[in-house]
Amino acid sequence: MKKITVMGGGTGTFVTLSGLKQYPIDLGVIVNMMDSGGSTGRLRVQLGVLPPGDIRQCFVALSEAPELWRKLFLYRFENGDLEGHNFGNIFLSALEKVSENYDEVLKTVGYVLKTKGSVLPVTYEKTQLCAEYESGVVVQGEGNIDENISEKSRIKKAFLEPSVSANKNAVDRILESDMIVIGPGDLYTSIIPLLLVDGIAEALKKTHAKLVYVVNLMTKSGQTNGYNVSDHVNDLERYIGRKLDYILVHNGKIESSIVKWYVSHHEQQVNDDIGSDSRVIRLGLADNTIVTAHKSDALARSILRHDSKKLADALVNLIDTL
Amino acid sequence: MKKITVMGGGTGTFVTLSGLKQYPIDLGVIVNMMDSGGSTGRLRVQLGVLPPGDIRQCFVALSEAPELWRKLFLYRFENGDLEGHNFGNIFLSALEKVSENYDEVLKTVGYVLKTKGSVLPVTYEKTQLCAEYESGVVVQGEGNIDENISEKSRIKKAFLEPSVSANKNAVDRILESDMIVIGPGDLYTSIIPLLLVDGIAEALKKTHAKLVYVVNLMTKSGQTNGYNVSDHVNDLERYIGRKLDYILVHNGKIESSIVKWYVSHHEQQVNDDIGSDSRVIRLGLADNTIVTAHKSDALARSILRHDSKKLADALVNLIDTL
Asked: How far apart are CA B151 and CA B129, in angstroms?
């Protein structure tokens, strides 16, 4: 059975995992542990727990439990003391408090949610993502970088404070995989943080797995303003220290009302400037359904998403040719 | 298999169920749904859910899941937005929000905690407990009555506002039981509220089950000040409208340091004034272990408890003679 490992943590990873789990493959995900915004950020500070948000989304994406359990883990309280907190985040936080170690947490959540595949935190150590912009400004905290949307200069350097070591199981998984899927996801807050963990880039350089990058559909304000496909690829390769093997680029239509929404947020479709590079695979990958953002919706952060079936089909077709 | 049904909701019920679950009996509990204090009270008001606290304690008491799950459901957050909230209460509240109905909630919690026996809310309708004192004062809300410890006059009348109907399954359970165990528990905030639900006292009058009352060890300020055993029995029989069949009274020693703690809270050992009543069974039933109250301890509300094994032994021995 072919071994595919997804790297990420946010909405894009949720979509990718939801699609891939339908196929008979050995599926795993290496999860970003730098989230510091919203409910996750508050729980980190107030309870001293590891960030639960991305872990929770991955578990739900891979869950084969009845729909009720998936709804429960995505439920967000709308009133009172618990307002804005996600139940799944609270579950993971309380479980961390009563468990012997984080492996026990993962095992217990996997059991409850009947998870198909491996969910591997990229690290078990606590750290904060930092970004130094070309303007000289340094912002600390993934949540703050994510919200720093008025920043016009590019990110010169992303780093972790303090530096942390990779989860050994994540490193082993990278070395044993046939394919590593990077993205889609916010380049500097979901993808690159994984590569900053000591041991991850090294493993990606060493592995025989094919590295597949799924390029985002839209730019992100304050993070990838005006980025073309080549900018995404160049930044990513710089942090990995190795060339990507395949680059998946959406080449179909995007619903004009969706594009309009993004333009009003100073964001636009990522321009495909990469030309006839033999590594590029161009396909219609976008889900043009208009997503109405809702507080309790796990996917509220982006209104345009990859289509989970089209993306999974493309990845599985690709691995079959290897 | 003999059918025993416990009625209550607080610490005393937790102790009784923990003991009885070790025996091969058909065990059930009819749970008070009037709690309005602490974490439960805040969740009721802020989220509009049914009170989760007593339900949660009963599920944990009857759980045969690994210790981790029991610890998780009793875990109380000590910091931040979630401070003072119990994880089990949050679990029940979120589950109620995403479930079709409350039966689905009960089924799901029972599945997770691998519950032995039936947990039956006395009602599925929302209501508040009210107490009218001989002084003329009326206090609304179980939590407020519980905290009204400076009240010196007796409770003249307890009632529910609004009146609510019994859960049909609870009524059926009463009618089919061989023994109904009432108490131990706070007379006016844990026990009598159950009897105020339309249909419960009627079922208790009609059933062929033996009614066994486990008398509290200590009085409770503002609720049973100066109550002897006969006062407890008289008040209880007045609300049921039927004579009790057996009355279990502790007759052993109570550790003097524990008595001292209660005296400093204007509470004392319940005086056994009931004489040679043939319904009375006198046994050493107290657990003289000194319990250190701790915020995250499910049993923090009373430092003296019945011994769960001694109490269960007494009840099972009694049912064997019927």
From this structure: 17
